Amino acid sequence: MGSSKAATSAHSPLTLEDMYKLFAKKMINLSARIVNNPTTAQDIVQDAFISGHTHIHQFTTETDFGNWLKRVVVNKSIDQLRKKSNATFEIDDATHLVAETDEISEEPEYEIPTVMQSIAELPDGYRLVFTLFVFEQYSHNEIAAALNISEGTSKSQYNRARKKLIQIIQSKQIKS
User: Which of 36, 68, 84 is the last residue of a domain?
Assistant: First the structure.
């Protein structure tokens, strides 16, 4: 099915198999970046697909459905992190604002596998905000709403995550 075709029609509804072929890899990667566990991510995506199949009739295009499914996966992944850490991931509501002009002076280029491995080593709260902002292109306002934090806290956590990520990568390079 092309993205311009309707997600459902009287003759060819989007089946679970179609959903899997179209969205599974992307959704599993998304969830795995958030929960930092591929097996848990697969379970989350399976639950999301079941919810999606139940609600497929509400969507007119695969794009609409894909965007909705992405939100479901993000929300289920966040819920899983909350369960894992009893709703206390390392997100400070005491907003120690990092000035937006407080840029890291030099951002050298790093190898993608090193960066992805280093992202996985970030604390849950940092990794969550970083993933939503960088990979999923959520605004800080959207992140704040999803995590029930202030927009300033989201910005602060993102800046801290960037700095921590660079520290992790640099420590790996020193060890090499």
Answer: 84
Q: Which domain does 155 fall in, by range?
A: 112-175
Same domain, 129 and 165: yes
- The 10 Å Cβ neighbour count of residue 101 is 5
Q: Are 103 and 163 in contact (CB under 8 A)?
A: no
Instruction: Determine how many CB atoms are found less than 10 A away from the CB of residue 141.
Output: 11
For the chain of 176 residues, list the mean pLDDT of each consecutive stretch of 10. Answer: 42 72 94 95 94 81 83 93 67 42 57 91 95 95 94 96 94 80
